[in-house]
Amino acid sequence: MSAAVRASDDGAGTPSLMETEAVRICRELIRIDSSNYGDGSGPGSAPPRST
Fold it and tell me: How many CB atoms within 10 Å of residue 16?
């Protein structure tokens, strides 16, 4: 395994840059409201397009 993908092994438990970035991305994804009310009125639901 190369140093670029290896988890930190400095013995101090300091997260690597990749681990820190992965945590940041996960936190952003968790914040996205994905509520589904079953009737299409949830956040992010686009109104129906007229044809």
Answer: 16
Is pLDDT at 4 greater than 90 in this prediction? no
Residue 23 vs residues 3, 20, 34, 50: alpha-carbon distances, Å: 19, 5, 19, 41
Of 35, 34, 33, 8, the residue nearest 22 (C-alpha): 8
Q: Could you tell me the two tokens for 51?
A: 């044809």
Q: How far apart are CA 11 and CA 29, in angstroms?
A: 30
pTM over 0.85: no
Give the residue from 49, 31, 32 showing the smallest Cα distance to 40: 49
